[in-house]
Structures are given as structure tokens and as C-alpha cells.
Amino acid sequence: MNRSRHMGKIRRRLEEVKNSSFRLAKLDFNHNESVRLATDALLDGGVQSYFKALEEEGEVDFLSSVETQYIEKNAREPYYSNETHADGETGSRQNNDTRSLPSGTYFPLVSEASEPALLHTWNVAKKPYLEEKSSATVYFQTEKNSNIRDLIRRCINKTSQVLAILMDVFTDAEIFCDVLEAANKRRVFVYLLLDHCHLKLFLEMCDKLKVAEEHFKNISVRTVTGEIYCAKSGRKFSGQIQEKFIISDWRYVLSGSYR
């Protein structure tokens, strides 16, 4: 029976916490090289290479099936793989290479050299929150008198200057109408930050509602990504943005898990 050369940190930790005879160990925040090697193997060679690396490193399967599928689906080749080699061959290019719509691109498109209007407005405007006492209120979805969706819509409706929204997935047509009304009718400047991986769902909603570029007056849409993991080979993938918050007139902030 083949045995691993050593035991991975997570496996070792599991053995310690499951065995009552082990003494309490000091919490370890050091780098886990086995995890890095296995993740690199997944990026470079797929699931089978991942499991092989886990076996060699004596480590547990630390990724869920959803995570491994996401990494495989969103793996990108290094930029230099698309360059023409000396022998005339051209490196392969992944269809899901997000350079086709790079993070940081505005919709409608504007020059990166120009400062987004929101940032300019934010810099020059008075900030009342600096002069007021802050307070926090917690709402739960189970409270029928404080429906989360209605709270969001009321927040958008009472905004008079600037509205910033970060969403991982934005497909709510009614809230989108609230945003368009604020921007086009009340001249509120709206700044949307959407997860890069799910931008297509937002564009799909725009197509279904027949909302075109000319309807995006005072609205800037920007895509962002999570942290980027890069293997030694150069292959990489970006994490997802799953935070959700709204900032209204520099005065009110809604933050939570509601999508």
C-alpha cells in the first residue's frame, strides 16, 4: 500500500481535532504549500491532476465540487501563450478569456483616462456623514413589516444626488426601473459595480427590457473581479464578488446578503 510522503496541514489538523488525546495546538496561519500545489495542478491539468497532487501531498480534498468546476471553467491562459512562437505556431487562447471584456471597462464605454463622474462628484460634494452621528439598524427577511426588497426600493427612491450599488448578480427588473427612474428623471448619478462573471445576466436583462445605451444617462456600469489566483505556469482565475451594498447620497448605506 502506497503511503504519502507526508501529511498535509489540513489533514494533520483534522487528525488532531478528532483525537481527544491530542493536546491543544497553536493556531497556524502559515502558508499551506500542499494547497498551492494541488490548486496549481487543478489549473494546469484538471481534476485528475488535482486528486493526484492531493494523494502525493497527503492532503484532504479541500475544494467543493462547485469550486473545482468554477476554477476549471474560468481558468485563463497567460498572456504570453497567445503570442506567436519562433516556429510560427500561435499559443491557444481560451474562449473564456475575460480580456474580451476586461475588468474595469465601463458600460457605456468611456476612456479609462477620464475620471468617472461619480468620483469627481464624490470629491467635491459636501459629506454630511462627517458631521452627523452614525447609527445602525438590522433588518431580517422574516420581518413582514420590513421587507428587504421594499427597503432597497425606498432607499433608491429617496436618493437625490449619488447612488452607488455593488451587486454580484443584478437581474431584478423592477429595481432596475427604480435605478433608471432615479438617473433619467431625477438626474441622480448612478454608479453600478457588477461581478465580471455575471455581467452577461445584466446585459441579458437589458436586452429583454429593450433598454439601450441611450437610456443609460447618468449611469456608469463597471465590472469588477475578486482576488486573482495565478499558478506558476501563468494560468490563473479570478474569484467572484459576492458582496452587496448600496450607498445613497453619502448618508445611507444598505449592506447585506439580499440579492
Question: What is this structure, in a nutshell?
Answer:
This is Protein FAM83A. By secondary structure, the protein is of the alpha/beta class.
Map the helices and strands.
Layout lengths: L8 H10 L14 H13 L1 H11 L7 H10 L31 E2 L9 H8 L23 H11 L3 E6 L5 H12 L4 E7 L3 H10 L10 E6 L3 E3 L5 E3 L6 E4 L3 E4 L4
Parallel strand pairs: 2-3, 3-4
Antiparallel strand pairs: 1-4, 2-7, 5-6, 7-8
Helix pairs in contact: 2-3, 6-7
Strand content: 5-15%
CATH level 1 class label of the largest domain = Alpha Beta
Q: Separation of termini?
A: 50 Å
Which word captures the global form?
extended
Relevant terms:
259 residues, Endonuclease, Chain A, 6-stranded mixed sheet, two-stranded antiparallel ribbon, 8 strands, 33% helix, extended, Protein FAM83A
Describe this protein's structure.
The chain is of the alpha/beta class. It folds into 2 domains: 9-74, no CATH class; 100-255, Endonuclease Chain A (Endonuclease, Chain A, 2-Layer Sandwich), CATH 3.30.870. 33% of the residues lie in helices and 14% in strands. It has 8 helices and 8 strands. It has a 6-stranded mixed sheet with strand order 1-4-3-2-7-8, sandwiched between helices. Strand 7 and strand 8 form a beta hairpin. Helix 2 (33-45) packs antiparallel against helix 3 and helix 6 (148-158) runs parallel beside helix 7 (173-184). The longest helix is centred in the first third of the chain and has 13 residues, at 33-45. The radius of gyration is 24 Å and the shape is extended.
